[in-house]
Amino acid sequence: MKRVKKGAFALSSLLVALSLVTAGCGGNGNNEGANKQPANNAQGNASAEKTLDPYEVVMVYPDGKQNDLGSVQTAMNDYLKTTYPALNISVKLNPIDWSAYADKTNLMMSSGQKFDLIWTANWMNFDAQVNKGGLLPLDDLLAKYGQDIEAVEGQFHDGAKRSGKIYGVHVHQELGNPQGIALSKALVDKYNLDLSGLKSGEFKDLTPILKTIKDNEPSITPAVGPAFPLNAYYGSGSTANIVGPVGLDLRDTDPNNTYKIVNTYETPRYMELAKLTREWFKAGYINKDATTPGIDVWKKFQAGTAFAAIGSDLDILAGTAIGEAQLMPSKTGSVGSDIVQVPLNIDRLQTTKLAATMQGISQTSKDPERAMMLLNLFYRDQKLLTLFNFGVEGTHYVLKDGQIALPEGKSQETIGFYHDVMWQIGNQMLNYTRVGEDPNKYKNYEEFNKKVANNPSPILGFVFDSEPVKNELIAISKVQSTFDPGLQSGQLDPEVEVPKLLEKLKAAGIDKIIAEAQKQLDAWRAENGK
Amino acid sequence: MKNSNRTNPFIILFFIVVSLASLLPFWLILMVSLTGQNALVKYGYSFWPKDFDLAAYRFLWHDAEPILRAYGVSIVVTVVGTIVSLFVTSALAYTLSRSEFPFRGALSFYVLFTMLFGGGLLPWYLVYTKFLHLQDTLPALIIPGLLGGFNVFIMRTYFTTSIPPSLVDSAQIDGANEYRTYFSIVLPLSLPVLATIGLFVIVSYWNDWFTSLVFISNDRLYNLQYFLYNTLMNAQYLQAVASKAHIDSTSDRILPLEQLQMAMAMIAVLPVAMVFPFLQKYFVKGLTVGAVKG
């Protein structure tokens, strides 16, 4: 027995050592193999196929289960056949559950499975897909077959550019959001609260309002988390975020510092908001369970135990402006009582936003040109877009005064098709609105987009390559995750804890990230003449 | 004797604490699943809810069909998988335990090799989809879990240490061939190890959601764990999507309530918790991988 064990130990340690070596090799080998094969395929086909044989475009996107998917697909194909016979395209809808989307698309790409259009996003492996060679560069295809895409999205390709080439087509949608506070209207009216002070766009002017609620309504939490001022800080006009806590301080008015990359925890703005949050916490304005994961702010409104949600994304309405109090239609409906929103910040146009939802074309596509032709249709053909988003008229929806409604006696659960994820493809501005939504929703988007597009981030178009500092980023996110919840909910004293946080970030290598980001940014500026 | 008497209360106390630590979470889950929505928002989780409500279970009852089907898939996969797995594992282990078997060393090494090296996700996926074309079939859920190197070694050790070689010899002298020896002598004597490995395999089949995630697209073939995982993750994703991408979140899909998740967890855990007492008598004797145990 003893001898066997000794032998086994020696053997297993040898094997472990071997496994480390082979694992390294195996990984590289796989990637190369996966890269080469589809690339050849695609090239061969692009040059060979000029006549328009029938082609089935497989569309991959995340969605829940739809019982009646087949009839929608048939309707889309009938429509394509009768309206665009010259293109000779049919579609195959291949939705994948949200929960499996990242894994399955990864496997489909690596195993060379044939599909054409794929929904992708910068928070859903877009960069990994580009690096692996899973997506085709689209510049030539866009120039040839993407006229309608170019008409609406032409100036917004920056988010999808990697090493100068476009790898994704951004969905035409809102370019940013307002952030601020949402308040229970009943309580605002009851205490005749004056919201005009919020025109300043500062969270601190909310303090007296929260105090009134705290003093008079013992059973109500004045401010519910997890979205607090500090949380809103990154999505706000305060910083242009690059990676992790590294970015530009947009409040720094010194023109020499416009492109100076800083640790955003070090900015005066961060400390100011952290202190304010701490003050609120000490005064008892903030819910005690703010740091518990999965807290749903809106359920608290529903239960009548919340007065204000702070730092959350707000609706885009006609006349959305900082400090302008308006009824918030989306939450008023779901919460069941009136909610008022007051924007305190409006997003600037950021590179990341332009990559937040895109369509790409897979390397495994047998006919990328036809995939692009179909994609282009989604930017100009309202009927096709409506089929994809809402299904078949009369079966899955009916039009009531130009808005989408469920047919008589049907519910979301029984309807068979309730895709309703408009931001996955095409030109959103062509979409119908649902009954209950503002019929002018998309007009408001257009108006809002002008505002956002006129206020771009100074580094719009800059994409950070995080590869050289991958390890540091992991170390830093660990440090962040130990401090952030406490600071964001005011449970930690920022004057004591922020210096500790900064020290730990230094130890984790934040200076290296800043230096790398500055290097890349300077190179980008030289290249783009900024 | 004296000594053991004195330490007894502590041991008892220790086990009371351990038992509570394992039972209380279940109790909490059960109670949360029975709490009304508003009470949950107001008071949070509690061990004795202020407001009992069967809404979550009513909802599940209403939506029973896919859940029952997922149950069915899980049960079929677990039962078939466990039986076949026990057969395959014990057959291999028995072969490895026989010193007469010529390729014993090489085969042992091969099994050990699989414990230390995995092919990785991609080759694994390619074998099942490109070569065997098993995607969207029940075998895709069963085959990947059939044989584990570790289980083989546990069994082999049991066979070599607990079944005297002379017994096998005498059976063969009496005219039993290898199959007869294996089925009539070795297996009946190995119930403890079969029960133990069986429980390992049952639990791993029952808890497996990843194989479903990779191979199954047809929702009629979702097993229970994946069905639950899917429901939960889809809801989480829709919430995360709205905040992460700053995307239009105005559509109000009905997201599963917390109680519902807890009720689902209760439903998922019950069958496997009920299997354990039936196998428990085999665990009294216990198992050994290496050292001598009497």
Topology overview:
The complex is a heterodimer of chains A (530) and B (294).
Chain A (H helix, E strand, L loop, with lengths): L1 H47 L6 E8 L6 H15 L5 E8 L4 H10 L6 E4 L5 H7 L6 H7 L1 H7 L7 E2 L2 E2 L2 E2 L7 E7 H6 L16 H10 L4 E4 L4 H6 L4 E5 L2 E4 L11 E3 L4 H15 L14 H6 L3 E8 L12 E2 L1 H7 L3 E8 L11 E4 L6 H10 L4 H9 L7 E3 L2 E3 L27 E2 L6 H13 L16 H19 L5 H15 L1 H19 L2
Chain B lengths: L1 H32 L3 H7 L11 H8 L1 H34 L6 H13 L4 H11 L6 H5 L6 H14 L2 H9 L4 H12 L1 H17 L2 H6 L8 H21 L13 H26 L11
Helix pairs in contact in B: 1-14, 3-14, 4-8, 4-11, 4-13, 9-10, 11-14, 13-14
- How would you describe the shape of chain A? globular
Report low-confidence residues of chain A grouped into runs of 5 or more. 1-49
> Structural class given helices, strands, pairing of chain B?
mainly alpha
Count of separate DSSP helical elements of chain B: 14
Q: Spell the H/E element sequence of chain B.
A: HHHHHHHHHHHHHH
CA gyration radius of chain A, whole angstroms: 26 Å
Percent of residues in helices of chain B comes to: over 70%
Task: Count all strands of chain B and give the number.
Answer: 0
What's the story with the biggest beta sheet of chain A? Answer: 5 strands, mixed
Which whole number gives the mean pLDDT of chain B?
82
Radius of gyration of chain B: 24 Å
Instruction: Provide the structure class of chain A.
Output: alpha+beta
Helix content of chain A: 40-55%
Biggest sheet record of chain B? none
Spatial gap, N to C terminus of chain A: 73 Å
Most residues in contact, chain pair and counts: A-B, 58 and 44 residues
Estimate the strand proportion of chain B: under 5%
Taking pLDDT < 50 over at least 5 consecutive residues as the criterion, the unreliable ranges of chain B are 244-256, 289-294
Helical segment tally of chain A? 18
Measured distance between first and last alpha carbons of chain B: 21 Å
